[in-house]
Write a structure and sequence with these properties.
The complex is a heterodimer of chains A (462) and B (555).
Chain A (H helix, E strand, L loop, with lengths): L4 E6 L5 H9 L17 E7 L2 E8 L6 H10 L7 H12 L6 H11 L3 E7 L8 H11 L3 E6 L7 H8 L5 E4 L7 H11 L7 H34 L3 E4 L7 H29 L5 H4 L4 H4 L5 H7 L3 H22 L7 H16 L7 E5 L5 E5 L7 H18 L24 H17 L4 H15 L4
Parallel strand pairs in A: 1-3, 1-4, 4-5, 5-6
Antiparallel strand pairs in A: 2-3, 7-9, 8-9
Helix pairs in contact in A: 2-5, 3-4, 7-8, 8-9, 8-15, 8-17, 9-15, 12-15, 13-14, 13-16, 16-17
Chain B lengths: L1 H4 L6 H4 L2 H4 L20 E2 L5 E2 L12 H15 L4 H15 L4 H12 L7 H31 L8 E2 H20 L10 H10 L1 H12 L4 H4 L11 H35 L4 E2 L8 H11 L1 H4 L9 H6 L15 H5 L2 H37 L2 H11 L3 E2 L26 E7 L8 H9 L2 E8 L5 H12 L6 E6 L6 H14 L5 E6 L8 H14 L4 E3 L17
Parallel strand pairs in B: 3-4, 6-7, 6-8, 8-9, 9-10
Antiparallel strand pairs in B: 1-2
Helix pairs in contact in B: 4-7, 4-17, 5-6, 5-18, 7-10, 7-12, 8-17, 10-12, 12-17, 20-21
Classes of the chains: A alpha/beta (462), B alpha/beta (555).
Chain lengths: 462, 555
């Protein structure tokens, strides 16, 4: 059985390409406020391991619908021959520039595609749409109308009443703001056009949902690997034989910061690619918050844990360690271990919060000395990194492929982004951060635990 | 291992340009999907390709080489678009078939890398083998020296078996036991001792040599720097590599010592005895010797000293050899087999077993280097997960926006005008009020066209306008609707009917309650510009009245 095909058709500039960009998650689709940008039909097959499960075809808009309809009416041979008449129109005019756009949009329909007719429900209905809908009716193919919402106006009811005269299914779909679940819902709804398509479309929807889950885990993996890399990052400089140079330490620190910044940038790019937003960097400036210098006070304030949460997290980790001592004493220590551990953990965390990177002079094997800067020991540093990475990942995951403008972040969202992570996840991550700092790495199983913990926070709404 | 990427020189056939591949390749962007070209190549980072259908022969590589080179290559591969990587790796996975992570990763590597130049992994492997050989040589030199000293016999007094065993067995056994302290990783309370033992380990010296002279990138150097606190894959590899080097030296030491001993025994005459300051009676020494000889007493009883030999071979340096029994010279040689077997059993054999353990564990650690690497894990994920693609196959063929007309329009808005309401832009009955308010002119005649009207109705509207006298013609349009080509057709038909002199003024009207924005005006300006008629121009109207929907007479 051939895969279901759908032609996205309609008036120019009503969001056909936006709908395709959203459904195909393809930000290479040309979307413009200028009508007629789409010149040729372009197909977007959904493939699972190379097997096509459905196809979307973006088409140019109607330019001379009344003239087409006049031709069809003039050549009408009765209801049973109307599809043939439309085919004759395309065959006769396919070499003419005059009806290039109409031929482009009718051809996939005549080849068996279902019709998805797109209108803008934020603008008033007009009589010029009726010739278009009439032409589509002549094709005899299953049809669904999608009311897109480009602007802020609301003419949905007016449109629904008109469209229901021509289409058995009318749905509202906001291409710019539709989240993943709405897209999947729409995809499944396409199955209503032809019952033979439903199974394949359901398979496709399931495959997309699984792929979405994989993206979440892959994103969490990128973030976890970023944290592992930056929490263990060090830079070293060989010390000259004539003694330490005071400028070396600052230069080495600066290099470490650049390394961390470059790693963060690479992780962001990777996350954008996972969500198929490859060109995001080239097209726009990211949010000001995300451009904030990683090591600035503001970055720590916006993204990291608040002092109280930092102390609580340190105390919780200390209490767990102290609890082990209590367990060894069979409870006879009256939880003194946990209490002392909590105090030490909290104090250690707060006292350590002003150190950005430790500096050591190390003896080199076979002679000489090297200045080693790092790893960065500030207990809030991993939370700042995590907060920034999570915010970026959520924005990317939420971002619709039809949108061409920059990220929009509510500046009044509040401070200490990492505070939103629940205590249990914070405790798990804190233990792993501590181990990374002390041991210079973690086991593969611990990395998996970090990924699992982070993945549940990747797609939480911002 | 970011640094290592640059050490992996690019294979021109693999990552070079299309000229080197000898295959026809498309370099376009097909949405996110990698552009397939003839020959089945895929675009990868840098515009290069990997030759998938007919892989070139490549030299066999060791697990260690692959554990270094695959992550390095993958680091470089991060520049390749994610979708391309997914597509490529899934394709290769189908060809590689099943297997564990290591087999999959190495199978994948055999498809993507066909280089013949020496990779970083190959260079490190060679250095690693050289260091191993050097450790073996050093151990052998030490073994010859120690055995030569321990078996030294100048005829003045017998070789003291006690000294010999101490030098060749007890010291080694002690070193071995101390090495075992390093196995569990960081042990609370023993960290200082472990650090000391680590620094004294000959394998650590070998690793330092490796790092110093092997030109090892910084991120790879940690594979050869053992930090007991690090239990991650690289730390584990470093531990077993260093221990393996140490055991290589120890094996060389024992083999050389045994060969030296046997050579001395075979080619010179040696006499053995035992001597100690401690008060130990021969019966006790015999019991100790029997315990030591227990492993071989059953199959080689002649190598177990009997009580008589023990009693006869005790000597004291002060007495010289006079105290020994008559005929002792021949009898004293009877210790040699015991001594040699003791070195084999308690020196060579444990070292061999430990070496074998190190080799097995090192291999496991090398496998873990590969599978625990985040980049390799991501690769295995890409190979295992079904490839979902939704992007277009072909590049977008977008129509560029036409330029905005830059010539100043010829304004002719005086008196009264003929008005065409295109596609229901305003109520025709209120066209006069709109015209007065927006353009400051009156209306002589107003007709309706476009929208739901038929083409015949449009023609009749044009006739009415043409018959409506001279003066400008104003066409009210809906600002929010895009100008279609049929609007251009209509204007052209109008021009043909009214003649070349009449000005045709296109005036977009805002939606009721809304306003015209700049993009709408630009869209209409471009459409008017495309008509390419100097007497057809856009009139925006009074800015104060560019809000639609208000009653024509409203302020």
């Amino acid at each position: 059985m051939s895969a279901p095909r759908f032609a996205i058709v309609g008036h120019p500039n009503k969001g056909k390409s936006s709908i395709v960009a959203t459904l195909a998650e393809d930000d290479s689709v040309a979307i413009s406020s200028e009508p007629g940008t789409t010149r040729s039909a372009r197909t977007y097959p959904m493939r699972l391991d190379g097997v096509v499960l459905y196809e979307l075809t973006d088409t140019p808009g109607f330019q001379r619908a009344r003239e087409v309809l006049a031709w069809l009416v003039a050549h009408d041979r009765g209801a049973g021959a109307r599809t043939a008449v439309v085919r004759e129109f395309v065959e006769q005019h396919s070499r003419e520039d005059r009806f290039h756009d109409e031929c482009e949009l009718l051809r996939p329909i005549l080849d068996g595609a279902g019709i998805l007719y797109v209108v803008d429900g934020s603008r008033p209905y007009g009589g010029e749409y009726e010739p278009e809908m009439e032409v589509l009716r002549w094709t005899g193919r299953p049809r669904m109308a999608l009311i897109n919402l480009i602007g802020s106006g609301d003419h949905v009811d007016e449109w629904r009443a008109a469209l229901s005269q021509y289409f058995s299914i009318v749905r509202v779909f906001d291409a710019m703001r539709a989240d993943f679940s709405r897209r999947i819902e729409l995809l499944r709804a396409f199955g209503a056009l032809d019952e033979t398509w439903a199974a394949q479309l359901n398979d496709a929807a399931t495959a997309l949902e699984r792929d979405r889950d994989r993206r979440r885990v892959r994103t969490a993996t990128e973030i976890a690997d970023l944290l592992i890399a930056v929490l263990t990052a060090t830079e070293s400089t060989k010390l000259p034989d004539d003694g330490p140079d005071p400028t070396l330490e600052e230069a080495t620190r600066a290099r470490l910061r650049r390394t961390v910044g470059a790693r963060e940038h690479a992780a962001r790019r990777a996350v954008q690619e996972i969500y198929h937003h490859d060109g995001l960097d080239a097209n726009e400036a990211t949010a000001a918050f995300l451009d904030e210098d990683l090591f600035s006070e503001r970055s720590f304030s916006v993204f990291g844990l608040s002092s109280s949460q930092l102390a609580l997290t340190g105390a919780a980790s200390g209490a767990v360690a102290g609890g082990v001592v209590d367990a060894l004493f069979g409870g006879t220590s009256l939880f003194l271990g946990a209490g002392i551990g909590a105090l030490i953990g909290a104090a250690g965390t707060l006292l350590g919060s002003d150190r950005l990177a430790k500096v050591e002079v190390l003896g080199q094997p076979l002679g000489g000395f090297a200045l080693e800067v790092g790893p960065i020991t500030d207990p809030n540093f991993p939370w700042v990194m995590l907060g920034r990475a999570l915010l970026h990942a959520r924005l990317v995951a939420e971002r619709n492929h039809a949108r061409r403008e920059g990220f929009v972040i509510d500046a009044g969202r509040g401070e200490h982004f990492a505070d939103s992570i629940d205590a249990s996840a914070r405790r798990t991550l804190d233990g792993l951060f501590r181990k990374l700092r002390s041991d210079g790495g973690i086991e593969a199983t611990e990395r998996t635990r970090m990924i699992d913990t982070i993945s549940s926070w990747v797609e939480r709404p911002t | 291992m970011a640094d290592t990427a640059r050490h992996l020189r690019r294979d021109p056939r693999r990552r070079g340009d299309a000229d080197h591949t000898g295959t026809e390749t498309t370099h376009g962007t097909c949405g996110r999907r990698p552009c397939r070209s003839r020959g089945g190549n895929y675009a990868v980072a840098g515009g290069g390709h990997y030759d998938d259908p007919m892989p070139l022969p490549r030299p066999s590589t060791t697990l260690f080489e692959d554990a270094i080179d695959i992550p390095s290559w993958l680091e470089h591969d991060r520049a390749t678009p994610f979708a391309t990587r997914v597509h490529r790796d899934r394709d290769i996975a189908a060809k590689v078939g099943g297997g564990d992570g290591v087999a999959l990763a190495r199978g994948w590597w055999s498809h993507v890398f066909h280089g013949t130049e020496r990779t970083l992994g190959a260079r490190l492997q060679r250095t690693r083998l050289l260091v191993g050989a050097a450790m073996l040589g050093l151990g052998m030199v030490a073994g010859v020296a120690v055995a030569g000293a321990a078996f030294h016999y100048d005829g003045s007094r017998p070789i003291n078996v006690v000294t010999l065993l101490a030098a060749l067995v007890v010291v080694q056994a002690t070193f071995l036991l101390l090495s075992l302290l390093l196995l569990p990783g960081r042990v609370p309370g023993l960290r200082a001792l472990q650090d000391l033992l680590t620094s004294l380990n000959p394998g650590t010296f070998a690793a330092a040599l490796f790092r110093r002279f092997g030109n090892v990138p910084r991120d790879v150097a940690q594979l050869f720097g053992w930090h007991p606190a690090r239990a991650v894959a690289s730390g584990r590899f470093a531990k077993w590599q260093i221990l393996a080097w140490a055991q290589t030296a120890a094996l060389g030491f024992n083999v050389a010592a045994i060969v030296t001993a046997i050579s001395l025994i075979a080619f010179t005459d040696l006499a053995f005895g035992w001597s100690t300051t401690l008060t130990v009676d021969p019966q006790r020494v015999h019991r100790i010797a029997a315990v030591i000889a227990w492993p071989w007493h059953a199959w080689l009883p002649s190598a177990v000293p009997d009580l008589a030999l023990v009693e006869r071979s005790q000597f004291f340096r002060l007495d010289g050899t006079r105290a020994l029994d008559v005929g002792a010279s021949r009898a004293l040689a009877g210790w040699w087999s015991f001594a040699v077997l003791a070195v084999v059993t308690y020196g060579l054999l444990p070292r061999f077993i430990f070496f074998a353990i190190c080799v097995v564990r090192l291999r496991a650690a090398t496998r873990a280097l590969l599978t625990d690497d985040a980049r390799v894990a991501a690769l295995l994920d890409r190979m295992a997960a079904p490839a979902v693609e939704t992007a277009a196959d072909a590049p977008e063929d977008a129509r560029p926006a036409s330029p905005l007309p830059n010539s100043a329009p010829h304004r002719e808005l005086v008196g009264s005008a003929r008005v065409i309401v295109w596609s229901g832009a305003v109520d025709p009955a209120q066209a006069d009020a709109h015209a007065r308010r927006a353009l400051g002119i009156g209306v002589r005649i107003a007709v309706d066209a476009g929208g739901g009207n038929t083409l015949d109705a449009d023609a009749r509207a044009i006739d009415s306008i043409a018959d409506g006298g001279a003066g400008p013609i104003v066409v009210f349009t809906r600002a929010w609707e895009p100008p279609l080509l049929e609007f251009g057709d209509f204007v052209a038909a109008l021009r043909a009917r009214v003649g070349p002199d009449a000005s045709i003024i296109v005036t977009p009207i805002a939606e009721a309650g809304g306003a015209i924005d700049d993009s709408q005006l630009k869209t209409w300006a471009r459409a008017v510009g495309r008509i390419a008629d100097p007497r057809v121009y856009l009139e925006q109207g009074n800015p104060d009245t560019r809000r639609g929907g208000s009653a024509p007479g409203a302020a």
